[in-house]
């Protein structure tokens, strides 16, 4: 069953290149760019193999790995994906749930994001190849990190397929995603106000230390701890990473079982009586444009983001000027009397 799903995924990937020439050119450029960036990161990771500051390399890779896991979760939820391997497409074939879950999880490794991730994770193995034991635990940690990202992406795509199937639900999800990104602005402002030359190393270490004990960054911190000689924490974090993969697999199996018995959600059609706003506005071009704009404001969720941004924007504008870093910079730049 797994082999059949792999062949199906390869066939679907091949059909992508049968589109219009311009689509094929754009897709080819995107693939070359993605794989090129992954190869560049691989070379950077290979160069870090001889770095003397093991703690700094460990902290950077832990934070970057946690951000990668978050990306694999957030992108399908916020932006949505065209899931051609949706489990509901196989509901009528009488295939056991476990076989479909395993086959779809393995088939998810055949894609540009998964291949790029595999290249980068291989680079982390080279980075921590500083002894047989460290290299062995680095291979195991890289495999756990790779599987975590793949299962996280499948779970996010499955949840998005269940909850964000209609266009209105996708619009609402996009609006919430934009708001979430906007709400991260204070965090970005706080990070930019940190004096990285003086205390940046300490801040990075604190963030990495916190993430290393969570499912997001445990797998990426294991080889760095082992290379630093902290084998106890390395083993504990390896257990956290293994438990994360196991729980993600159980959640994926449960989600597949739920999706196989859940029909696709159809967009509910509403019946409207009368002309609505077109009957309330004066006749003519101005009234028609006003009625159309008002209708969009009431029915299109994407228009709501403008209203929701009104109370948020002043706060985001005032944060940089009110932050401690900006006050320090102002005091330094003011002339002494």
Summarize the structure.
With 337 residues, this protein is mainly α. The protein is 74% helix and 0% strand. The protein has helices at 2-15, 21-47, 54-78, 97-107, 112-127, 132-163, 167-183, 185-192, 196-212, 218-227, 231-260, 285-299, 304-322, 324-333.
Describe the 3D structure.
- The chain has helices at 2-15, 21-47, 54-78, 97-107, 112-127, 132-163, 167-183, 185-192, 196-212, 218-227, 231-260, 285-299, 304-322, 324-333.
- The chain has two domains: 2-195 and 202-265, no CATH class; 275-320, no CATH class.
- The longest helix is centred in the middle third of the chain and has 32 residues, at 132-163.
- Helices cover 74% and strands 0% of the residues.
Key descriptive features of the protein:
single chain, 337 residues, mainly alpha, 2 domains, globular, transmembrane, membrane, transmembrane helix
- Unreliable stretches (pLDDT < 50, length at least 5) are 326-334
Number of continuous helical runs:
14
> How would you describe the shape?
globular
Average pLDDT confidence is: 78
| Count of distinct strands | 0
Count of individual domains = 2
Distance between the termini: 80 Å
Largest sheet: none
Helix content: over 70%
Order of helices and strands: HHHHHHHHHHHHHH
Percent strand equals under 5%
Structural class: mainly alpha
Q: How large is the radius of gyration? A: 25 Å
Protein name: ABC-2 type transport system permease protein
Keywords: Membrane, Transmembrane, Transmembrane helix
Organism: Agromyces marinus
Break the fold down into its secondary structure elements and pairings.
Layout: H1 2-15, H2 21-47, H3 54-78, H4 97-107, H5 112-127, H6 132-163, H7 167-183, H8 185-192, H9 196-212, H10 218-227, H11 231-260, H12 285-299, H13 304-322, H14 324-333
Helix pairs in contact: 1-4, 2-5, 3-6, 3-9, 3-10, 4-11, 5-6, 6-10, 6-11, 7-13, 10-11
């Amino acid at each position: 069953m797994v082999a059949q799903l792999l062949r199906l995924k390869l066939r679907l990937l091949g059909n992508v290149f049968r589109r219009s020439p311009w689509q094929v050119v754009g897709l080819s450029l995107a693939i070359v760019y993605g794989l090129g960036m992954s190869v560049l990161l691989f070379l950077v990771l290979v160069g870090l193999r001889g770095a003397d500051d093991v703690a700094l390399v460990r902290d950077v890779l832990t934070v970057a790995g946690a951000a990668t896991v978050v990306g694999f979760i957030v992108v399908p939820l916020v932006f949505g994906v065209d899931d051609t391997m949706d489990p509901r497409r196989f509901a009528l074939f009488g295939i056991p749930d476990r076989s479909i879950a395993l086959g779809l999880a393995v088939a998810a490794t055949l894609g540009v994001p998964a291949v790029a991730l595999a290249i980068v994770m291989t680079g982390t193995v080279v980075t921590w190849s500083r002894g047989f034991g460290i290299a062995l635990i680095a291979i195991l940690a890289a495999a756990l990190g790779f599987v975590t990202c793949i299962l996280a992406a499948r779970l996010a795509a499955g949840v998005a397929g269940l909850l964000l199937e209609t266009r209105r639900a996708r619009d609402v999800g996009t609006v919430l995603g934009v708001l979430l990104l906007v709400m991260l602005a204070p965090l970005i402002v706080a990070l930019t106000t940190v004096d990285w030359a003086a205390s940046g190393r300490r801040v990075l270490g604190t963030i990495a230390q916190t993430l290393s004990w969570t499912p997001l960054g445990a797998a990426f911190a294991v080889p760095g701890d082992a290379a630093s000689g902290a084998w106890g924490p390395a083993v504990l974090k390896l257990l956290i990473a293994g438990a994360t993969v196991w729980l993600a697999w159980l959640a994926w199996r449960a989600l597949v079982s739920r999706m196989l018995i859940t029909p696709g959600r159809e967009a509910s059609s509403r019946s409207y009586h009368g002309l609505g706003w077109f009957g309330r506005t004066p006749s003519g071009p101005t009234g028609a444009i006003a009625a159309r704009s008002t209708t969009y404001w009431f029915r299109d969720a994407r228009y709501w983001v403008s209203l929701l941004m009104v109370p948020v924007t002043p706060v985001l504008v005032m944060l940089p000027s009110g932050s401690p870093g900006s006050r320090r910079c102002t005091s330094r730049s003011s002339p002494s009397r």
